[in-house]
């Protein structure tokens, strides 16, 4: 096990807390969790393409899709390739304009 630097030993945190702090910088937060029935449907959501990706639009998309999880995806967002039936991904360009809306 590597030695803990002296400036971190002064914090007197358990080793697992130090690991959590170290890994915390690598994690990205998912989009807001919105209550829904858990089944995402994107058939009637194309109205959002070209609109601003603001909070009001995201909430309407969440409500209209029935998704349990809404993920805003920007050009710098790293995404996994897993498929979830309860997730709506809202793709945004650099100007925060919605370019695609898909249940994935």
Describe the fold and architecture.
The structure is a single chain. The protein is α+β, with helices and mostly antiparallel strands and 104 residues long. The protein has three helices and three strands, in the order H-H-H-E-E-E. A three-stranded mixed β-sheet has the order 1-2-3, covered by helices on one side. Strand 2 (87-92) and strand 3 (98-103) form a beta hairpin. Residues 23-30 have low confidence and may be disordered.
Form type? globular
* Main beta-sheet annotation: 3 strands, mixed
User: What number is the mean pLDDT?
Assistant: 78
Strand order of the largest sheet: 1-2-3
Which spans have pLDDT < 50 for at least 5 consecutive residues?
23-30
Query: Structural class of the secondary elements?
Result: alpha+beta
Q: Distance between termini?
A: 40 Å
Residue share in β-strands: 15-25%
The string of secondary-structure elements, in order, is HHHEEE
Number of helices, counting only DSSP H or I runs of 4 residues or more: 3
> Roughly what percent helix?
10-25%
Number of strands: 3
Q: What Rg, in angstroms, do the CA atoms define?
A: 18 Å
């Amino acid at each position: 096990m590597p030695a803990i630097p002296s400036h971190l030993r002064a914090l007197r945190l358990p080793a697992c807390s130090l690991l959590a702090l170290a890994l915390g910088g690598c994690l990205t937060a998912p989009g807001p969790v919105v209550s829904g029935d858990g089944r995402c449907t994107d058939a009637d959501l194309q109205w959002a393409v070209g609109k601003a990706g603001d909070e009001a639009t995201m909430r309407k998309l969440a409500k209209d899709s029935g998704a349990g999880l809404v993920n805003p995806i920007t050009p710098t967002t790293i995404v996994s390739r897993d498929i979830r039936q309860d997730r709506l991904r809202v793709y945004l360009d650099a100007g925060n304009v919605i370019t695609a809306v898909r249940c994935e």
